[in-house]
TrEMBL record:
A Pfam family this chain is assigned to: F-box-like
The protein, known as: F-box domain-containing protein
UniProt domain F-box: residue ranges: 1-47
Organism: Coprinopsis marcescibilis (Agaric fungus)
Matches recorded under InterPro entries: F-box-like_dom_sf, F-box_dom
SMART domains registered for this protein in UniProt: FBOX (SM00256)
Amino acid sequence: MSHLLDLPVEIITRILTQLSLQELIRCQSTCRRLKRIYDQSSKLQYIVEIEVAGMLDNPRCRISVADKLEALRHRERAWCSLRPTFTKTVPIPRQSCGLYDVTASAYFLGVASESTPPAVYELQSLALPSISTATASHTEIRSDKEIVDFATAIEEHDLIAVVRKAGTIDAFSGPHGLEIVLLRHSTRQPHELADQSIIHVPSPHMVAGINIEISGENLILLPALGLGGMGPLQVYNWKTGALRAWTNAISNQGVLFLREDIFLCPNVFNMTLDIFCIPDRSEATGSIELHRPTFRLSLPILSGSHTISGIECRCEPNPTSGNSFPQYAPQSRPFVNDPERAIAIFSFDIREHTELQSRPFIMLVHRKTLLSAVSTLHALEAVHPVQATPWFDWGKDSVRWLDAAETGSRFITCTSGERYVNISLNARRIPSPISIIDLNQYRIRRALAGFDVYPRHDSRLVTPTRTIGDPEHDSIDEEHVGKPEFTENVVSELSFAEFATEEKFTYDAVMIDEERVIGIRSRHEHPAANISRVDVHYFG
């Protein structure tokens, strides 16, 4: 009788590549031959280590698997020790204004006009360096109308969607109409996949701000109106220009995609995370009103004297259509962050009724945790009435809360993949280290098992049952946050690792993208107002 181990090594290796991560790890423990095959196979090691790292392999990258494995290991060592491959200062070519974003491909800033107050008619895009000898290439996107905001889907579609004021009054657009201009980022020309290069958005009310997100073919536009009101959230198919769905069941300007067809909005009135499903119906039937969320996840209850005065949320990178690999990711990059493993950040400003000053809190949770909560429904159909899942049933074990009163970020762009970056809010005056909080549970379990994952002497691991290490610059209370803001201490038991740089910096703020930590230096106290230069710390 033939046995598995009688087969040629090549066939055994091919069989092992079809196993899950857990199955492949268990196989190594069954016999010496399978362990030896694994130890001699770059392909098998790469399959394991790229999943542990929370990355996706780039099938268009032509370097060998052995070279990809070495690049991945170099990247992991650099991030886990917070020792960058190089650091480079990049000047900002034009005076910046409040608009900004950072993606794996580019860093964007609005260009301040000379008017008072300044408006934005241009965006500057900087491709930050990936090698020490490179310079940051700079391009500009110009508009003849005032730019309100923008969103990108560069790696999936080579797309930038610029929202601008229509500048005309007619029966369709109303007195405050908007336009969504769809451009190729690489050429700054109208995107040829869009049937309409400009989507006209009617608005009868003054728009105070915009939130816009793109995933797959879906583009979400959520305007904030004057006097604290919210306009209807609208879902467009950016390729056809058709309005697919809309809802008025929105209480604030936060929105993020969980999947191409599922999005989440925090509800500040109910203290819930409201999850909506975009109907899969023909656009020929017209747009569909989403009367209520499909699902609700409860947040900890605020005490009676407190309210939320502001909230932002983000999860980078965004999911792609059908979880396909982003086709415009550079071929030179061997791997990219897995959107499902990415950390969603929710930034809350909580204020007591009698106080003018609010207190900031941050909540971190994996996108896959939120998707798992949705999958507990047997079908993605609205329940009447919608029943909210209690906080302790879904959040206690899967969420990490941070009291961000002393540390945090002035920007929401402080997470990428499973890492969160912060620096002291007083670093401009008192030099401070950059701190990374890592929520990759594979790395943390390996560290707890004795592997040298985090070589920094000041790193610490925090689990529900123990804390290992006690660095000088620990930035969060591992046990609980929230009294007196919440009715009870908010317990969050998601394990994490925290470590800080040896060097101290005088940055106004820090950001993070897939490969870099970006230190912000501005000419004023508010870093978004006039950024003079950025320091790029490249890790890979």
